[in-house]
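fold-stage: in
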Amino acid sequence: MITKMTKYTFLLLSSDTEAFLRDIQDLGVLDITRSRKPVDAASGKLYREAETLRKEIDVIERCDFSRDEQHHNLCAKLAAAEEAYAEKQHWGDVDPDKVKALRDAGCRLNYHTVPVKKFNPAWDQQYAIVEIDRDEKDVRFIRVDRASEGSNNFQVPRTHVAVESLGELATQISALKESVKRREEAMVVRKEEELPLIRQVYAAKAQELQRYLAQSSSTLVADDYISVLTGFAPTEEDARLQAALDQQSIYYVAEPAKAEDNPPILLKNNWFARNFETLTGMYGMPVYDEFDPTPVLAPFFLLFWSFCMGDAGYGLLLIALGLLLWKKEDFDLLGLKKHWRLVTTLGVGTFFVGILLGTFFGINLKEVSWIPEGLRNIMLVGKIELGGASYDLAMVAAIAIGVFHICLAMVIKAVGITKRAGFKEAISTWGWVILVVGGIIVAGLALTSVLDETATKIAVIAVGVLSFLGIFIFNKPGRNPLLNVGAGLWDSYQMATGILGDVLSYIRLYALGLAGGMLGAAFNDLGKMVLGDNPTWQWPFFLLIVLLGHGLNFAMSCLGAFVHPLRLTFVEYFKNSGYEGKGTQYDPLTNEIKE
């Protein structure tokens, strides 16, 4: 299954880009592509306008009042008024008439605050001091002196005390709180009413900048660059990623990815199919609106591999190898350690198919007396009569598997074209599906006597008519009928020659399994010849021949079982299923070190 992706678009100055990418790297979910354009006068102006709108959107969207300059100024004034009020409470209100009378007499009031430990009681004898307030920490007092004398001889700095009364300060605080509240309410209203419009303006400005950067061929040397970043992340990661982006005050455009965006592909399959995703990647990832071939590739590749190995004993060796790769940290054969699950899975399949083919380290299980009769009866060993000739059961099974595999590919191709381009574009493909798949089904039902002669005739006519109309008449609706007939004839030639060759390619499953089994049996016979009838000193040579022989046969079987199933998948199956594999693999920016 192809994971749904979300497309993210960013516009940043290059000076901000690297820091942004480092933060994104920590998240490890965003697959980034980037381009850089020099900043000229036009792009710089567009960028500044877009950046101003982006910051405004960020402030309004998050209701981050600390980023609003007017709100910030009001809050600063409110804090200063509250601080002045708190300080004024210690001093209390002073009669303004008396203060004026002292000033007229040439006297001045000096407000001082000193820690309790630093207050000198002797000051009462030297200066005109009146203690106003005292607490555990500080002493507050007023010193009266002549304005003409100055205050150089008194080293305690003066404390600023608001000239306004407590009542006036309280009125100021109340008014400022009301102003702050109105400003916050206005920002909430802007978020509800104006934000969509501002976003539209920003999007238009950003698109204008993108168009300018795309069309500009300027080669002027610039001090800075605009980075256009496009990223894709799995939709399931949207909440975590967008929360992190919001923390960075990065304005971004997030939208569901579409096929035309060519998003990177992240496959998401069950535990079994996940082991075979590496093989899909070897051919090429699907595009975004294509089917993920892995769920079909997985069981068939396992079946093909097992047929080509064809020996239950070799299956046990593969299981042991897979478990060894898993358990031994310092053991990595041919870089297979990270694929130990795949190796083990292939071993399990080889063991059971090897039992079905009746071979265990070159020994014919059909001839072993201790094998249960029920198991012996289901083995694909022996001949089957078809059309007056006899064929090996294993060969017939290989061809049957090939026919089913190709039919499945044709159905998947028809469904895929219908899904991506519509039914009209898939009429010809559905015609061939009806002809080939429908014909095989009808033939099978007739041979097994499920359909009587009359029903068989009706089914054959129906299949013939429907497939003829799809292949020759309506293969391209709206086109000249003669051209449709000509195209149908050409398709018929290609299908007739292609499908037959594709089906015969599956005989290699039988041939490789047969060759491996015969070679294993040959090494067993060589060992028996060396061993003789009364073995004594011959045992070491017997073991050497058997171990080396089966080791060589095992290695050759593994090579053949890897290459030929890949060919059947990449050529026969992918060709008939219409799979192209032109997608790009999801490769997020991350801190993880990749091997």
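fold-stage: in (second)
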Amino acid sequence: MIFVIGSGPAGVACASALLDGGEKVTMLDAGLELERGRRRQRASLQSRPSTSWDKESLGFLRDGVEVTREGIPVKLAYGSDFPYRDPIGHPGSSEGAYSKPSFARGGLSNVWGASVLPYRTEDMTDWPITAEDLAPHYRAALAMMPFSARHDGLEEEFPLHHDSPGALGSSSQAEALLRDLDQSAAVLASRGVRFGASRLAVQAEGAGGKPGCVHCGKCIYGCPYEFIYNSAHTLERLRENSAFSYRPGVVVQRLAEVDSQVEVLARHVDRGSTLRMRADRVFVAGGVFNTARITLASMDAFDEPLHALDNCYFLMPMVRYQGRPEVLNERLHTLAQVFIEMGDPALGPHRAHLQVYTYNELFQEEVERVLGPFHRALPMVKRGMLSRLLLIQGYLHSDLSARIRLVLRREFGEEEPSLDLAGEPNPQTRPALTAIHRRLWSERGLLRAVPVSQMMRVGLPGRGFHTGGTFPMKAKPARLQTDVLGRLHGFTRVHIVDASVFPSLPATTITLSVMANAHRIGSAALA
């Protein structure tokens, strides 16, 4: 018997590969779910066409959503914080870092932005594998999810790894931006800038003969029809396999290799009782912070610091020269609409990844906040601002980003050890962000848009949920490192398969590569 710990994207991808290899797999998971009442409300929306939804029936989606000067504090799922709840209250502290581990069924895929893009080998120079090694596993991961993308200028450096992606409709703002970029594609390419339509793990209408996105504009709260991929969807398919079993309500605490097996010490979420189980092999996919807690405890590595890598996350508005007033009334999706991959000498050999978001209803609340009491008296000004406003959500390579220092400590009188986090700034971050603004400003004529750097907001390390590298893969691993199959130094039957094993973090989206690497390890570990 093999155990996989965690039901997030890494867990289901690894389990899929193991099952394809003929293994019997049990998935251990805390498995927290959306509250029953909210599931009923979501089902009510699903039972009706989106054109019949009213403000009252949609109200629960907005519970807890607050727009502030710093943006949305935390993204909820259908008005619930269940993806971030800790069922046993692990102790810990955080100073200058952001930590939201998940114990939910499906992990953080309950609240992700669904953007998918592979890594380039050029951004993986310190990895013991290449993007080409991941290629068949990118294809396998994309086969697990709905996928919407276009053939465009991104393909040369970022292959689709898919034969027939779906096609989502873009907003009028996005189409206008892409047309302007296309007119200058050769010039931009010569300056290290690639662009294209966003690639999203979203079911497009008619793709594969299935119903899909109705462009209702509610993506930011959680798709009422569940057309955005969640790894819990794959979990349900895995449960149809007689060789697979799912055991929720379990929080793993530590692992030990005993004879030719792995002993798992865990707690039952509801009863609080201690569980001891044995498996022939264990694959850990708990997410970076949960995996660190389990692994450090298993090694008795208390008070021994290690570092998590991060992709610096930032938000910056951009204002187009020409407005598209129809965007306020058109049907659209509100996930990322355009990807821009930007090179610059100040960024070194790596690219910055920019996701461009066009209008959603929270933009209107932000503009009204800026205008204050004048927004009612100046409706044309408000409309003009909204028709031109875009939002860039950007990420830097981990070489240019802050790190997070992690230490597991035994606290006197506490049943659970404390995981303490501290952000460690990187002096290269600010020059890199300045270079991105400078490039956007210098290309404003080609973009037909002006970046508003005065309103740039930079998240704490961990805020963008692109974190990893705590137990990096190495060709010759040392203590607190792993081999190319995610085996922790000193262990032979424990494999880490989430982003914890990434030696560095390219700026492009992380989830697809997490799934591909987990699938690679699951495919090769028992071959």
